[in-house]
């Protein structure tokens, strides 16, 4: 099955997102989430995601996620090395399948993401 071409105008990327509730597993703050999913096929999931301040652990990701950070600020800690990364608007991160670590959102963060299965 061939994938369809996807175009999402800038106004949708920066506009209101669908509220999806509190981040599961959050252990600090009250990270309320928002999302806009792009119409993609089953092999790729993509969209815009936003989180208000708060923190949570990530245990062995099930997929690889590439993110372009649009705005906000977070500190990500790599569980394997203990290294911390301060991320903010304009940064790109890749969280590989199997990665474990921690997200601590300091200022409401918004990213465009793509996850391949």
What layout of secondary structure does this protein have?
Layout: H1 10-14, E1 18-22, E2 28-29, E3 32-37, E4 44-51, E5 54-58, E6 64-78, E7 84-88, E8 92-95, E9 101-116
Antiparallel strand pairs: 1-3, 2-5, 3-4, 4-9, 5-9, 6-7, 6-8, 6-9
Concise description?
The protein has one helix spanning 10-14; strands spanning 18-22, 28-29, 32-37, 44-51, 54-58, 64-78, 84-88, 92-95, 101-116.
Characterization of the model:
By secondary structure, this protein is mainly beta. It has one helix and nine strands; from the N terminus they run αβββββββββ. The chain starts with 9 loop residues before the first helix and ends with a strand.
Let me know the number of strands.
Answer: 9
Q: What would you call the shape?
A: globular
> What is the terminal separation in angstroms?
16 Å
Low-confidence stretches: none
Arithmetic mean pLDDT: 94
- Indicate the percent of residues in helices: under 10%
Q: What would you report as the Rg, rounded to the nearest angstrom?
A: 14 Å
Write the H/E string, N to C: HEEEEEEEEE
- Please identify the structural class as seen in this structure: mainly beta
- Multimeric status of the protein: single chain
Question: Strand count, sense and closure of the main sheet?
Answer: 9 strands, antiparallel
Strand content: over 45%
- By DSSP (H or I, 4+ residues per run), the number of helices equals 1
């Amino acid at each position: 099955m061939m994938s369809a071409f996807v175009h999402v105008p800038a106004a949708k990327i920066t506009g209101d997102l669908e509220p999806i509730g509190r981040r599961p597993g959050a252990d600090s703050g009250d990270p309320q989430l928002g999302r806009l999913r792009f119409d993609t096929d089953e092999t790729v999931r993509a969209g815009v995601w936003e989180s208000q301040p708060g923190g949570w652990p990530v245990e062995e990701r099930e997929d690889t996620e590439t993110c372009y950070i649009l705005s906000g600020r977070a500190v990500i800690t790599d569980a394997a090395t203990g290294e911390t990364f301060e991320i903010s608007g304009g940064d790109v991160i890749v969280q590989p399948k199997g990665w474990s670590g921690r997200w601590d959102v300091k200022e409401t963060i918004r990213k465009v993401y793509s996850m391949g299965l």
